[in-house]
Amino acid sequence: MDKSFKKVVFKAIALAMGIASLVLSILKQLEDKNIIILLSIGLILLAFEGLDSID
Fold first, then answer.
1. Are 17 and 38 within 8 A, CB to CB?
2. What pTM did the predictor assign?
3. For burial by CB atoms within 10 Å, which of 25, 30, 38, 47 has the most?
């Protein structure tokens, strides 16, 4: 997979997870545990993207 494409995909998914957790939290559709899981997935993807750019 192309590095620039992977960076865009990882950042887009992380942003989508953050927005989804915010909206679902406002609408009271998710428990706190599930919101933390969504935010953790986004944070992990941002960490992978950051580690990949070190080379």
1. yes
2. 0.82
3. 38
CA 18, distance to chain mean position in Å, is 6
CA atoms of 24 and 30, how far apart (whole Å): 6
Output the CA angle 49-38-50, nearest 5 degrees.
Answer: 10
CB atoms within 10 A of CB 14: 20
Cα 44 vs. chain centroid, distance in angstroms? 7
Phi, psi (5° rounding) for residue 54? -70, -35
> In this structure, are residues 49 and 15 in contact, taking their beta carbons and an 8 Å threshold?
no
Kindly report the number of other CB atoms within 10 A of residue 4's CB atom: 8
pLDDT band at 55 (very low <50, low <70, confident <90, very high): low
